[in-house]
Write a structure and sequence with these properties.
This protein is of the alpha+beta class and 1087 residues long. Among the domains are: 122 residues, no CATH class; 182 residues, no CATH class; 231 residues, no CATH class; 172 residues. It has 21 helices and 35 strands. A 6-stranded mixed sheet has the order 14-16-17-18-19-15. A 6-stranded antiparallel sheet has the order 20-21-22-23-25-24. The chain is elongated, with a radius of gyration of 68 Å. It is found in: Nucleus. Pfam families: Med14. This is Mediator of RNA polymerase II transcription subunit 14. Component of the Mediator complex.
Length: 1087
């Protein structure tokens, strides 16, 4: 058998066969290693057949000549040798990623085998024998040979065999591939040829496609060749020789009489049939017969002409024409529609009669109406007005038009659909379909009565949408109005009213908001096309809220509109406040409640106000409300952070309602009135708080807003009544009677901007009125009756008015007490002056100018602090006033806290005046020589030192009082100073003894001193000076030796030598005054 493998008997080993058949190829090539006797059949060797023999040059031979049908195919060897070599083949595929090497493939196979072996062994290890199974070695029981019945062992073997089988197949395939790799070059060349062949095939197909595309594109470049001459002949003559004649026989034309008779017969036949034989549908009962046709009219839908061709009632009607009875519609049907409509109507007439004709045309008209509305919707969108605002969807015979597509929230739409007409409560009978317009507002279906006004005869989709939009807008504005009316507080100052206007033939409503003081109310509309809110007048505030209402999801419209109205008022008031010079500041609220319904607030710092006070304006549904506020400046909580203003108290300004009504008219003047009301409220609040803390009864008068009197500085009158005894702190059971009646009236007159504190704050002006009791404060009455002081006035009946100023916002009760006590003190001061024989040049609560001396040539001006505190300033005039020597001591005694300080001061003036005048005369008598010095330890204690003597001599001059006959008498005691440490000269000592013992009517000699009254102390001093001078003349030679030496200061005396004399002792000169030069050579210096 050919192809059978034969083996020689007795041959050792196996035949060396190769899977790639390379042994056969080696044999054919004459490989000597291959035995030629091992292949083929010995009986019929292939080499014995002549057709298998080859010529010497390798060309095959044939058994005879073969016929050549397609030309001469004989190619000689020389031609083959001369043929051109084939083109180079594309071998780029060899470098691609898909071409892998055989070594890598074998590595992957070996790696895969190793991983699969591990996985198989892991799975086998997980298969465990059930509990109680007997142990077997390799699945065989010891001592017996039997089959393996263990399921565990079988499973493991099955796993191992499956692994071996899979790997065997994989390695077998790898072996086959490895054998084929020996012919890798031939296989690669075959692949090269295949790639080249595929490219040639794809190129030929692409060329064919391009040729076809070019041919198709060239059809537009062909020039048409119409038969112009034939067309002109046919159009001009109506016939043409080249047109074939069909050979039709034209019917004979009817005459007019024949035509009239035919039409009459047809009318009679139609009338007879319609009245007697036909059962007319209820909707086609309205018909007319004329001109051989019956015209059926269905209101609002169509008018159809029908006729018959025979008098037989069984024959059908035929359709002639139709006209639509709604607008807009065309008078003529399109040519493409009429034939189909006529055919369809005739079919219905033939099958179902007039009832079927009506049903068909009725549905046709309903569908046509839907299409007309759909076309109108498309026109609305194309015109641009409703672009991107409505969305149109047509599904079967249901037209859905959604509007306000850009509005957030639930959508709204209308549905125009053909419905069956059947209702839930009607009996089950066939009803005619109809058009129904359904409105869905915010996703909820509305009652059909809402769309009952929609015209189904005069179709206008835009008018229908505008009608629905108007109702929708009205609902939204009505809901906003109801929400505003439900806001707190009640009653509200914010008013809302819905207005209507005509726009595009539909009612477009508007919501009008107004607050007291608005120049123009806010008008809120809803744009009918877009559904967006539109607010006028247009400004930054309304634009902000308009954007918020249109672009914020789930916004609360009533609250936002109320907030917008309040913000509009706030902006207006802020602008007005800025023009008035008010400065706005930010602050937090510290346990302070704002008025109900407040949405916005502004805090203002007014000009000349204390930094602890401010004015707060709140804006909300309650309108514009003004309050005074206490402000605390708190340091920053964070490092390098800003400080914080905190509102700790808030008090409404009484009477702001009357001002709010005029805000829109006089902006600046209205704010000025509010400022005056606020200042008055601060006055009331501050004073009432102090009265309540001090348990002082009080009563407030009505706080209105009187006229401005043409001056913004004059505030409204604010009056408080209280009790005098409780105000000044007099006990009810006190023995002494108060010097004024119980009723005290305190009136407030606003801010006085002419006076400023050191911090730049203004003062407020107040007027206190009371009535003096009979016989009380007589000196004050007498002084005020002739005084020109405008701050204190008294009338003949004892009525006293006191005008004073207080820093803005400062406590008032203590100031009032101080001023009332100062009134009483001023009366005592005047009485003291009168008692001492002094007069006053002018007197007030702040100052007293005292005149004294023989001819009232000297003055002492006392200036008191406004709060009654110390120190009291003393100014002595003129420069020749002797009291300049002890001015500092006098001022110190005046500032003593003892009640009798003023009396002591006045007594010191009276007591020391003769003494100091004598000292001045003695100094002048010495010709300017520093013969002696006067040192004052107190207004009643003086040390006279004669420093020109050696040793120096000192004398004490002390004022002592003594009661005599019920009166206190003050006398001067003149004696040697106890601080005299060195004995005086013998001559002077002898002279002094004579002086101390010599009597005189002007003084009394006590043996070691002299006592003299105040008016005669001058004589005693002159006598002493005379004695010392005489002693000094006798010792002149000794003193001349020491003239050049400065006077030694006696440390034991404790006195400092005098240097200069100044106004008021050592007190510095007052601002604005030049230091006054002394006219004396010696001045007093205080210890």
């Amino acid at each position: 058998m050919p192809g059978r493998i034969m083996m020689e008997p007795g041959a050792s080993g196996s035949v060396d066969l190769k899977k790639d058949k390379s042994h056969a190829q080696a044999e054919s090539r004459g490989d000597p290693s291959v035995d030629s006797t091992s292949y083929g059949s010995r009986d019929t060797p292939a080499s014995d057949h002549p057709q298998h023999k080859a010529n010497g040059n390798g060309l095959p031979t044939t058994n005879g000549s073969m016929p050549l049908t397609n030309g001469d195919h004989a190619v000689s060897p020389s031609d083959v040798a001369n043929m051109a070599s084939p083109p180079p083949l594309d071998q780029s595929w060899r470098t691609t990623d898909v071409n892998k090497s055989m070594g890598k493939l074998m590595d992957r196979v070996a790696q895969r085998c190793y991983l699969d072996l591990q996985a198989t062994l892991s799975e086998m290890s997980k298969i465990s024998a059930p509990a109680g199974a007997s142990a077997q070695a390799n699945g065989v029981s010891p001592g017996a040979v039997q089959l393996d019945e263990s399921e565990v062992s079988k499973s493991k073997k099955r796993k191992l065999l499956e692994f071996a089988n899979d790997q065997r197949d994989r390695f077998t395939k790898t072996l086959v591939l490895a054998d084929w790799t020996k012919n890798a070059d031939e296989m690669a060349r075959i692949i090269d040829i295949n790639v080249w062949q595929r490219k040639q095939d794809l190129g030929s197909k692409a060329a064919a496609f391009e040729l076809a595309d070019i041919k198709h594109s060239l059809t537009h470049l062909k020039m048409p060749a119409p038969n112009i001459e034939g067309a002109m002949e046919l159009l001009a003559t109506g016939r043409a020789d080249w047109v074939p004649d069909p050979g039709y026989i034209a019917p004979e034309r009817l005459t007019s009489k024949q035509l009239l008779k035919t039409l009459r017969d047809m009318n009679v036949a139609l009338a007879t049939r319609l009245n007697l034989d036909e059962e007319l549908p209820p909707d086609m009962s309205d018909f007319t017969i004329a001109n051989g046709r019956a015209t059926f009219q269905v209101p609002g839908e169509f008018e159809v002409d029908l006729t018959i061709a025979d008098e037989d009632p069984s024959t059908p009607f035929y359709f002639i024409d139709i006209r639509f009875l709604f607008t807009p519609c065309s008078d003529l049907l399109p040519e493409i529609v009429r034939p189909r409509l006529e055919a369809s109507v005739n079919i219905e007439l033939a099958n179902k009669g007039l009832k079927g004709c009506y049903d068909f045309l009725h549905n046709f008209v309903l569908t046509h109406k839907i299409n007309v509305l759909r076309a109108q919707a498309g026109d609305m969108i194309r015109n641009g007005k409703w672009f991107d605002c409505i969305k149109v969807e047509l599904l079967r015979r249901t037209l859905t038009v959604s509007y306000w597509n850009g509005v957030l929230g639930q959508k709204s739409w209308i549905v125009v659909a053909v419905v069956s007409g059947r209702q839930a409560k009607t009996p089950r009978r066939k009803l005619q379909p109809r058009l129904r317009v359904q409105w869905y507002c915010d996703g909820l279906a509305q009652d059909e009565q809402e769309t009952a006004d929609f015209q189904l005869v005069d179709l206008d989709l835009e008018r229908c949408i505008m009608s629905v939009i108007s109702k929708h807008s009205f609902r939204k504005l009505e809901s906003a109005k109801a929400g505003i009316e439900a806001l707190t507080p009640s009653p509200r100052a914010l008013t809302a009213e819905i207005l209507s206007a005509q726009s595009d033939g539909s009612r477009i409503p508007a919501l009008e908001l107004s607050l007291p003081g608005m120049r123009k109310p806010l008008n809120i509309r809803i744009e009918p096309v877009t559904g967006q809110y539109s607010i006028s007048p247009v400004n930054a505030t309304t634009l902000f809220w308009q954007t918020r209402l249109n672009h914020v999801q789930n916004v609360q419209v009533p609250q936002e509109l109320a907030s917008m109205a309040a913000k509009s008022m706030q902006v207006k008031v802020n602008d007005q406040a800025q023009s008035c010079g008010w400065s706005k500041f930010n602050a937090i609220l510290d346990s302070v409640e704002l008025p109900p319904g407040t949405y916005h607030r502004s805090h203002f710092k007014l000009k000349d106000w204390n930094s602890g006070w401010g004015l707060t304006a709140t804006f909300g549904t309650g309108g514009e409300q003004w309050s005074i506020c206490r402000v605390q400046h708190r340091p920053a909580t964070a490092p390098n952070g800003p400080s914080v203003n905190a509102i700790v108290t808030l008090q409404e300004v009484i009477g702001h309602g009357a001002v709010a009504r005029t805000l829109a008219e006089t902006s600046e003047s209205s704010l000025k009135r509010i400022e005056r009301l606020a200042v008055a409220e601060i006055f009331h609040w501050t004073l009432a708080s102090e009265f309540e803390m001090g348990h002082i009864p009080y009563k407030m008068a009505g706080r209105g807003a009187p006229a401005d009197h043409g001056s913004p500085e004059i505030g409204p009158s604010a009056i408080i009544f209280t009790k005098f005894s409780r105000l000044v702190g007099i006990a009810p059971n006190a023995a002494s009677k108060p010097w004024a009646s119980e009723v005290v009236r305190l009136a407030f007159f606003g801010i006085d901007r002419k006076k400023k504190t050191d911090d730049g704050d203004a003062y407020v002006k107040l007027v206190l009125k009371l009535t003096l009791n009979q016989g009380k404060l007589p000196e004050l009455r007498q002084m005020l009756s002739t005084s020109s002081d405008q701050d204190i006035r008294v009338n003949s009946t004892g009525g006293l008015a006191l005008r004073f100023w207080s820093p803005f916002g400062a406590p008032l009760v203590e100031q009032i007490r101080i001023r009332l006590k100062n009134l009483e003190k001023l009366d005592r001061h005047l009485a003291t002056l009168k008692q001492c024989g002094f007069t006053h040049q002018r007197a007030s609560l702040n100052s007293i100018v005292i005149r004294y001396g023989a001819a009232d040539e000297y003055t002492a001006a006392l200036r008191f602090a406004e709060d009654g505190s110390l120190p009291v300033l003393l100014e002595l005039m003129p420069d020749s006033n002797p009291h300049h020597r002890i001015g500092t001591l006098l001022e110190r005694s005046l500032n003593n806290k003892a009640p009798s300080a003023f009396s002591s001061f006045v007594a010191s003036l009276q007591l020391t005046l003769p003494l100091l005048q004598t000292i001045d005369r003695l100094e002048e008598s010495h010709g300017g020589l520093k013969f002696f010095t006067l040192n004052a330890r107190a207004p009643t204690v003086f040390i006279i030192t004669y420093g020109m003597l050696r040793p120096a001599c000192k004398f004490e001059l002390i004022a002592r009082s003594k009661w005599r006959e019920g009166k206190s008498e003050v006398r001067w005691l003149l004696q040697e100073a106890k601080s005299q440490t060195q004995p005086i000269a013998e001559v002077l000592a002898t002279a002094l003894k004579e002086l101390w013992k010599s009597g005189d009517s002007r003084w009394t000699a006590l043996g070691n001193s002299i006592v003299a009254p105040a008016d005669t102390i001058a004589a005693a001093l002159e006598k002493l000076d005379e004695v010392v001078r005489k002693t000094e003349s006798s010792s002149q030679p000794e003193q001349q030796q020491t003239d050049d030496a400065p006077a030694a200061h006696d440390p034991a005396s404790g006195q400092a030598p005098a240097s200069t004399k100044s106004n008021g002792g050592n007190r510095p000169a007052q601002p604005g005054q030049q230091p006054k030069k002394s006219q004396h050579n010696e001045v007093i210096e205080l210890d």
